[in-house]
Amino acid sequence: MKNFLFLFTALTIFSSVACFSQVNRQSENRPFMLKGQVVDGETNMPIPKVNVEILGGQYTTTNLSGRFSISAKIGDELIIKSDDFVTVYYTITKNDFITVRVEKAKGETEPVVAKSPKNTMQAGFKVYLDSARFFLKKDAQKSIEYVTRALEPGQNKTISKKENGQAFETLGDINLFWNQPDLAIDNYKRSLQNTLNTEVSIKLAKAFAQNKNYQESITTLQNLSKGNLSAYQRVEVYESLGDTYKAIGDGVKSVFNYQKALDVAKENQITPKITNLNSKIGEAYAQSGALNEAEEYFDNSLKLAKRENKQRAVSEKNKVADFYNQNREYDKEIQLREETLEELNTMGKGTTVEDEALTPQRQNYKIANAFVAQEKYKQAIPYLEKSIAEADKKEDLIVQKDATRKLSEIYRDIGEYDKATESYQRYVEVVDELYVKKEQEISQAARFTKEITLKQNRIASLENDRKLNESRYKLAFENQELIERNSQIQKWVIISLAIIVLLLVFAAYTQYKNVKQQKFANNLLALKSLRSQMNPHFIFNALNSVNSFIAVNDERAANKYLTDFSLLMRSVLENSEEDFIPLEKEIELLELYVKLEHFRFKDKFDYKFSVDEAINLNEFVIPPMLLQPYVENAVWHGLRYKEEKGLLEIGFKKIDAKTVKITIQDDGIGRTKSKEFKTENQKKQKSKGMGNTQKRIAILNQMYKDKVDVTVENVFENSEGTRVELILKKD
């Protein structure tokens, strides 16, 4: 426990130091009034009424001279936005007057309007559009798909200006609901280009405000207020103006427009709007700091909301409770939230509430916060536990995270460190889970945005497609024959090109195959040529041995040697036409050859064969007489000149299932001394056997991908003895 207290104290001190450092940094980076100007990049002329915003902070607009001033800090991101040019993002690096040059946005293409007479497809268009509206708040992609079907061109299908405008208005509604105001602006503009509609203009103004194009929103609404509007439309215009001024922090103009909307709503008995506007006026006053006026309007909105329905009443109580929290009237806040909780429970599970704040877990959490603000920690704990339980039940990780952390902090403040630690551990687990969930949501949101944008582009292109298709349908009968003829020509051209391509591919493949076969045949011919050179060389050396026996009148030895030699020659001739023979046969030939050489030089060396029993000799193949020249070199150039008796060792060892190592080792005089014993005539002659063998190995490796690998090295440090190692691979 003492260790925990020590650790907790250290963490508290560290947190205090970190907070102190942060305060110092904040004091060093104090806000200042940034001044600047927005000008056209081509004409260098100032641009008035441009939206200027600090990301997450202040907002203003340029004056008639294109100038602005705004409170900012070093490192803030300045956003210069207008519907007339491309949005500019500018990072503030120093307190200097800045000039921002902007580029004009690309102009909108003229809408394509069908001019054909009325048709029988209007019912189908209406069904598709109704389906799109039905799925608007449920499935954005399905909703857009229905709009696409409504706009798709077809034979005997035309779409009027009005229908075209309705379709793009529906698209704008989809985009606005799914928080894509930039796309909504584009679609509402397309709708208005087809038919002027006050409702669509109001929606456009709302989309401008949601996209933070506040100046465009204000201009649009002010122009609408000067026209002929119904009572409800006039309320909406003034209410939207109030919303926009509230968003940019202009409380006076916000309240003024809300009040005008409220007067029209009262005059025409538009009850839902009266409730909403009282609430919004209260919020505007609260934002401006006029708390008494705000409380008066909030009281009105509460009374009016109770007359409508429970869901509206609950929503209004939540807003007023937030106001009481802002005003530090925590007892009133707690009372309202308790009532909200009771009404949420009585509403039942079947009722859907779109506001995320109107959930039991969020309300319990806010009640706990109100108690904590009054330092009533014991009263706050039960509400936090309820909030955590509800959040866990409804998989609301955000509330669960906040409530768990708050509970840990309370336990820490009241000295219950074990519970504080336990709650903090649960908080860390929830944060990890929330991080994974957020990553998934970000990925899904990116994919969703991409898919919606693709569908949007598809719909935008339908206007042009429809005009082209309508022209095609009008000329269909006149051009039918030409189209069919062109189609036939295209088919023949495609077939001809396909045949030509196939012939070229076949010719190239045949050529490649012939070259490959010719190369293989040339290699085989070279191997046969080298093999044919090996046989006379071997026979010549063998006959020299017989001649040496006859020279010393040893007829019995000569006869015996000739008998063994004839057996060897018969085997050699039998295998002379074979490219490869089993390793077993090669070993038999080698043993017979070594026996003959030992018969002649038995006083000079002994020999020893060792064959690994694990080798399946019939599975490995080797070119005939490949090993004989290495053995011949060992005898004739190494062991023959040795004064004492030498030893020739020939071994076959399995490395793995596909590889065998062949070792030919002698303890003769070595390659260096052997050169000294050569006569001048021998030095002039090149070794036929070894040269041919090296060529054979090179050709084999080229044909069969490194089938044989040969290394030759000295056995002893004094350069005596020779070891030849051949690595033979299975095909």
UniProtKB/TrEMBL annotation:
Gene Ontology molecular functions? phosphorelay sensor kinase activity
One Pfam short name: His_kinase
Q: Compositional bias (Basic and acidic residues) at which positions?
A: 673-683
Keywords noted in UniProt = Kinase, Membrane, Signal, TPR repeat, Transferase, Transmembrane, Transmembrane helix
The Signal transduction histidine kinase internal region domain covers which part of the protein? Answer: 527-605
Report the Gene3D superfamilies cross-referenced here: Histidine kinase-like ATPase, C-terminal domain (3.30.565.10), Tetratricopeptide repeat domain (1.25.40.10)
Q: Where is this region: Disordered?
A: 673-692
Which positions, given as ranges, span the membrane? 492-510
Annotated signal sequence range: 1-18
Which is one Gene Ontology cellular component term of this protein?
membrane
Q: Which domain of life is it from?
A: Bacteria
Where are this protein's TPR repeats? 235-268, 275-308, 401-434
Q: Which residues form a coiled coil?
A: none
Supply the name of the protein: Histidine kinase
